[in-house]
Request: fold
Amino acid sequence: MTIQEQLARREFLKQLRTASLAALSCNATRALGNIQGTQQPAAKADSCILIWMAGGMAAPDTFDPKAYSPFKKGLAVDNILSTFPAIDTSVDNIKITAGLENVAQIMDRGTLIRSAVQPDLGSILHSRHQYHWHTGYVPPLTVAAPHIGAWMAKVLGPKNPVVPPFINIGQRLEGVGEKEELKAFTTAGFFGSEFGPMNLPFPQDAVRSVQPPRGMEPGRFGNRYRHYRKLIEQNPNRDLMSDFQQESMLRSMDAAHRLLQSKEKHAFDLTREPKDSFERYDTGRFGRGCLLARRLVEQGARFVEVTTEYIPFIHWDTHENGHSTVARVKKEIDRPIAQLILDLEARGLLDRTLVVIASEFSRDMMIEGVPGSTARDQSRAPSKTLEEPKHYGLHRHFTGGTSVAMFGGGTKKGYLYGKTADQRPLLAVENPVPVMDLHATIFAAMGISPQTAYEVEKRPFYATRDGHGKPVLDIFA
Amino acid sequence: MNTRDQLIAGGENGKSIIAGDSGRSLFLKRITTRNEFTRMPPEGSRVPPEKITVLKQWIEAGLPWEQGISLGNSSWEPPLKPRLITLPSPIKDRSHPIDRLLDTGLKIRRLPIPPPISDSVFLRRVSLDTIGLLPSPTDLQSFLNDPKEDKRVRIIDKLLAQDVAYADHWLTTWNDLLRNDYTGTGFITKGRNQITTWLYESLRTNKPYDLFVQQLISPTAESAGFIDGIKWRGEVNSSQTREIQFAQNVSQVFLGINMKCASCHDSFIDRWTLSEAYNLAAIYAEQPLELNRCDKPTGKIATPKWMFPEIGDIDPAAPKAERLKQLAVLMTHPDNGRFTRTVVNRIWHRLMGRGIVHPVDAMHTKPWNEDLLDYLAVRFAEDGYDLRKFMRFVMTSQAYQARTVIQQAEPTEGYVYTGPIAKRMTAEQFLDAIWQITGTQPLTPTAQVDRAERLAKPSHDPAQDTKLVKPVPVTAKWIWHDGRGSMKAELRKTFSLKETPHTAIVLATCDNAFTMKVNGKLVATSNDWQAPVRFNIASHLIKGENSIQVAGEMFGGSAGFICQLIINHPDTQRVINTDRTWQVRKADDAWQTALEVHAYGNGPWGRILDGKTVTPGSFDLTGPPVRAALMQNDFLMRSLGRPHRDQVVTTRPSALTTLQAIDLANDEILTNYLSDGAKRIVGQKRTRDELIDWCYVYALSREPTTGERTVLIEVLGDGKDPVAIEDLLWIIFMQPEFQIVR
Reply:
């Protein structure tokens, strides 16, 4: 049935079925993709989980170990590449760093890219690089760019119509630094909010987003909605309600209440997870976020992002004390990430779920940006030699070589792609993958052509910049 | 490319066709290429081979073209000059010019004239459209009881005269348009200056639109935020430098011209070229501005120039301030019909639900009623660029006072006018309406605006406006007592005034907290020394002796209070600073001379009062209840479509989405408004039936039908349970009839 036919139906009360219609009928954007004859590739995955290492995950201290120097007072810092020793993984030619022992055991389930690169942008501002990473476009822009999750929601739609297709876990958008900058890309942009994220900053409270308001009994909540519907049936201006605007309002209200009264809403409720399983994930908010992501994907979520959370100078954003901070963050991420992959695998979901671990850029002991960059050095513990523990760590933002891990979703297993230099500067020396191509790769796995475009203000807006993203096909099995 | 000349001239890629040489003709290459980015037509099926042969022959033959033939109608170009039209004769007694113009169109299409609306529907519509508020049940009753025939005109006038409420409402539209009240990306380096105070005052005083725009283009410090755009940290794409933002924003907002395409390359969708975009940008540029094409330098330097030399030129040799002044004059020149058409179309869209040209930023598209648009534009200019007068003009037409039409789907390009279209409430209107009924609005606004009641008619003199809040360098001292024995200090100052002042702006902060009374009346409290307060205390000052009393408290560490009071009379200014002329006492001690702890700028506090966004006093008790547009964007408003304003926003989405509906079902902010409101309403001691009528009439401007009443009684029970009232409010607020201005 076409949208027009749907909308032509005047028996609006019987027609409250598909939520997405409301969006389609109101949206000014128009898909060029299929009109132009852009072939959508066959999808290798149906769901995507983006594990976002917010704040700049230093590759040499995580997935790309280099020569290790333990802390020693007086050591010249320009000799230091990695502050963690390398450890073996389940794949012969892949070593990662100490602190990621659980992740090391699952490296045979996915592909590790060590050659992701980002533009320098003249000044390193996390939220701006994160905007770029999440949308594929560098702000400022004349058009509000959609998040990659919104692209999936828009092009692919929900996998299960009851579960919002784009869910964002773990990032607060209020009460943290650069919050407005974070909001700028945590959005569906010109696609409109139907394709925007459902934000769940606190995984343990996630269930509240799909529950009656705090303090309201489910019985009362159900009654309230029934009365609302009864009141509409009694409205003397019923004819006005066949107006597209009013009709779409009713349809959206119905869709919302369907989720709020569905069995799928239990996916949001972590108290329903068996205790031993909950505990395996429970290293903190991030760990619980991974568990929530798994539960949501099991119920048919399309795109889920789980983040360690970006807060200026916290977690991966190590401007001083880098080593001890990263040691702590690794404790939070190691177990839950590995568990997530194993659980997806055990449930037979890994093959059709693409899990991506990424960050806006890497870090380096010495170099801000890339060699020759004009970016201002932002280390808060600059020192030529190690004098105190706060000097020890990768405190500069490095854009020349970053690691990205991908699991499932048709990626090769136990595969290594790209390479960075062994001596500083640790630039990607083999197969560099810019953000645009990384996106094309993720989109390709999800069955979205990087040339997919929508019209906004009579201009085409592409899934990857100008449609130029090239998927790294080599990483797919 | 609809004429032979246009076809030959081609675009930035050079000539499109070389007469007699099909092999070198880009035109032919594009329709035959396999390259999907350059192919023509860009989508759909290709030109069949036999037709390509014909085209080839035609090019070889030298492009024979019959004189005067133009292809298609997309070559429609809006006229620059205002166009006078002759009004058609009225049909029946419908003599209002708008009705005469619209009725003619309806008659030609044999469409019915939309029927009129009732007084109650009219009052709700006109109230939400002018001041963004619901009419109260009392207002509605007295309007319905008014037997006079001219009551609709009188209520329009009365509403438009509510200058504060009008400004509260229209601030939303202009903040969207001018990207004001922006806290977003790039702001981390304080790249955007807000113009809220200026904007609010301009709306409040109904500044003529030509002057309004002149002050935006050729600004004072208070209005400079708009043309300065957003300054970014780091490198930006050359199509987003501040100069290019200037070109894009000025042309989009004031002329409905989209320069976004042309700031990268010659536009594919309209006539604007890369040079035109850069020349416009060069008016604003401090340095010679090099053209960049798709972010690559071209070596060409732009000449400060604007797009319509027919009206006049910019002197490229003049300094920037002078060039901006020249542009301001050209933009608002009486011959610039595009300027007036753009704004009347925007207002029409807000009032009638759809632009006469739509989308409202695509002013190069043909209006669905050209005569109407041209008539309104000319009339607006003749009426002194008076926005409120223009709204009055539209609202007094029978077209505005007609029933909204039922749209099966969002209107598209082939739109035919059959009557006004209902509008979805903005997030701000929605919240304001809920606050009206529940009484749960915040106590103080975050926007720095002067909402105090004014006795004297405010001057339209722009110099007066700037005087209102012109910053004065701070020379006040940090004062306190000796710091021994008490964490608290009372501070006071008395002074005498010959007249009550026009404005009196307090700028103050205290490490760590203070409350301030003016002539015994509490005007401000603060407990964050890093967030100075700044507000107008004029209404609390009197002719004769005045006193300021401050109760300060330190929580530990340093202590100090600093205050600058700028008192403006029409011609004079006086500044009162904290210094040794103030007095101080510890609890129950005797008053003594205040101690100057530090000069401003010294001590641990730095230049905390300089150029910082300052919050208004927490108890500025002078204005009417706070409105949503004066508050910072929050989760609920964002969810309901209040934009982030990274871009200019001219139209907000009309549909409610599922995620928004989830928020309406369980969002905490909304839930709190409803439960707090329910408790207040219980306290108002109405009977069950009174309560139902009051809520319904307030929310929808009509009484419930018998069927509706049955449902409402079922929900409400005896009317004494706040929980039941909360549910009642929710089911009313969720009605599409409530959320739509119909």
